[in-house]
Amino acid sequence: MGLSIAAGVAFHDHAPGDAGGPPLLLVHGAGGSHLHWPEALRTLPGRRVIAVDLPGHGQAPRPGERSVAAYAGAVRGLLDALGIGRVVVAGHSMGGAVALTLALEDPDRVVGLLLVGTGCRLRVAPAVLAAAADPERAVEVADLVTRASFGAGASEETLRAHARALAATPRGVLHGDFEGCDGFDVTARLGEVRCPASVVVGSDDRLTPPKYATLLRERLPGHGMRVVPSAGHMVALEAPAEVAGAAEELLREVGG
After folding, report:
1. Residue 255 burial (CB < 10 Å; 0-12/13-18/19+)?
2. Would you tell me the crossing angle of helices 156-167 and 138-149 to the nearest 10 degrees?
3. pTM above 0.70, yes or no
4. In whole angstroms, what is the distance from residue 174 CA to residue 170 CA?
5. Which of 41, 197, 208, 242 suits a disulfide with 220, CB 3.0-4.6 Å?
6. Kind of pairing, strands 9-14 and 49-53?
7. CA gap 94, 32 in Å, rounded
């Protein structure tokens, strides 16, 4: 099924006739697309679910952005274009940074947060940041990031497919994403978040390890936290039922 485009963002809109409560918005991570969320979550029964491709990613128009704040602005523009006043935002990795930014800057709109494999500060190793700036090293960077993103149980076929997709990201987009992540830090502002948050992390996540999730859980409203055994940074793809379950719990908590 093709995606629609509004405000520079491509999106898949799952809107069943019996949908109730605020929609669930899915925001992917660096170099990703809406396909980094499992189908079980993108087509959640009884709930409107909007899965986005951020500017420059997937089927969205180029270019990408170079800051989390700019991506959050693009998502806010999409919500305005769709007339959505209240929303639960799920964010993976860089998408979690976008979700936190939206909750801080638009607190009356964001009524719940599902934070998956993310943190309140997302520093990128200088060597990775430098390598991502060189288009000649796209395949090398994609392979490096992919092998750090999955748990030990991921198949070689899965790793190769993910690396190919990451290497095909339009020139400059991944580097811009990494720059945005590296400049992101809302640690001092976590106490300003008003809505309940649910946190999910893979036990073997090497990019945003469980200690990042623990800090979020300690400082944000809400109580849900899942540490998924043997999963890595791509926990939503590695353990889709766990992530979908966390989403459903949060949606029940925020109600209609």
Report:
1. exposed
2. 140
3. yes
4. 8
5. 197
6. antiparallel
7. 10
